[in-house]
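Write out the 3D structure for:
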Amino acid sequence: MNPEEIIDTFYAGSPALRALLLTHSSLVADKARQAAIRSGLDADLRFIHEAAMLHDIGIIHTNAPGILCEGAEPYIRHGVIGRDMLDSLGLHAHALVCERHTGSGLTAEDIISRNLPLPHRDLCPISIEEKAICYADKFFSKSGDPTKEKTLEQVRAEMARFGEMSLARFDAMHSIFGN
């Protein structure tokens, strides 16, 4: 399976967004792979690469002009949109990564209490591969300089803005994947 070919299927008419997505996803894939190796756990590195390259595929259908997204959906929905896109191709495990990488994961309680336009179920990473990608994704933004890696302190501050549990979930991932 070639993730770039799948991206091309959906992004052929959006070359600038495609380039941004590939830059971001490549950085996330490299960091996730390194994190998984560092953890010493038995992770599927090929799957990590593929799924990390595809984790944000749903952004094309969202409305986030600051990062070249001209769709109609709220950006927070990019993960569930990406899941639908990859499910339609039979890539069910990859699709779950899309759905479960937002923030440090979102619980049903988070979704309901914050009135987010998402399914009322837990959308948290479960497998080691999902967690490695979710963790790595926090260090790179698609806005500003997408190649600049955030510091651990910056990531922790961002996670803390979404509450103690969000930060605790990130810290748990950092205890597995951090330096």
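The chain has a mean pLDDT of 96.
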